[in-house]
C-alpha cells in the first residue's frame, strides 16, 4: 500500500515523462534519477508484474513462479529507461513518435499492445486516466504554515 507522498511521487514521474516528451526535442538525452524502491511502485502503477492471484500465507507454494518478485524486478540497483524515437518516414503523424521501455537493459512489452515498441499517442492514451489525475501544481505546493510544534524538537 502506497502512502499519499509515494503515490504522488509516482504520478509525478509519469507526468514528467509525458510533459517533457511532449515538448520539442532540444537535446538527445534527458535523465531523471530516482531510487530502485521508487521504480517498483511505478512499475506496479503502470500495471507491470501483476499476478492473477495475490500472494498470501496460504498460497505461498502455488506462487513460486509469480511475476511480482522484487528481487528480480529491482535487484540491488535498477534502471528504467524510456526511449523516445522521432521517426521521419511514417505513414501517419500518429506514428511520428515511438517509445520503447527498458527495465534493467531489457525491453519490456507494453500492456496495451504486448509489443516492445508503441506509438507515443497510444501509450499516452493507455495511461490517460493516471495522467489526467496528475495535478502537479496542487500536489507539489508547499504548505503555507509550519505545523511543527516548538516542543517537538
UniProtKB/TrEMBL annotation:
Gene Ontology CC: membrane
Pfam families the record matches: His_Phos_2
Family assignment from sequence similarity: Belongs to the histidine acid phosphatase family. MINPP1 subfamily.
Molecular function GO labels: acid phosphatase activity; bisphosphoglycerate 3-phosphatase activity; inositol phosphate phosphatase activity
Signal peptide start and end residues: 1-22
Entry coiled-coil feature ranges: none
PANTHER family: MULTIPLE INOSITOL POLYPHOSPHATE PHOSPHATASE 1 (PTHR20963:SF8), MULTIPLE INOSITOL POLYPHOSPHATE PHOSPHATASE-RELATED (PTHR20963)
Source organism (scientific name): Buteo japonicus
Chief subcellular location: membrane
Protein name: Multiple inositol polyphosphate phosphatase 1
InterPro entries cross-referenced by the UniProt entry: His_Pase_clade-2, His_PPase_superfam
Amino acid at each position: 500500500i502506497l502512502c499519499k507522498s509515494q503515490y504522488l511521487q509516482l504520478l509525478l514521474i509519469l507526468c514528467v515523462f509525458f510533459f517533457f516528451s511532449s515538448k520539442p526535442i532540444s537535446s538527445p538525452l534527458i535523465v531523471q534519477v530516482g531510487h530502485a524502491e521508487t521504480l517498483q511502485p511505478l512499475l506496479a502503477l503502470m500495471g507491470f508484474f501483476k499476478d492473477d492471484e495475490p500472494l498470501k500465507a496460504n498460497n505461498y507454494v502455488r506462487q513460486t513462479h509469480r511475476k511480482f518478485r522484487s528481487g528480480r524486478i529491482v535487484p540491488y540497483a535498477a534502471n528504467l529507461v524510456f526511449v523516445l524515437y522521432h521517426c521521419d518516414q511514417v505513414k501517419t503523424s500518429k506514428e511520428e513518435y515511438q517509445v520503447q521501455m527498458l527495465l534493467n537493459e531489457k525491453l519490456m512489452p507494453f500492456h496495451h499492445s504486448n509489443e516492445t515498441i508503441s506509438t507515443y499517442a497510444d501509450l499516452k492514451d493507455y495511461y490517460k486516466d493516471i495522467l489526467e489525475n496528475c495535478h502537479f501544481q496542487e500536489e507539489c505546493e508547499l504548505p503555507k504554515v509550519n505545523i511543527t510544534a516548538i516542543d517537538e524538537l
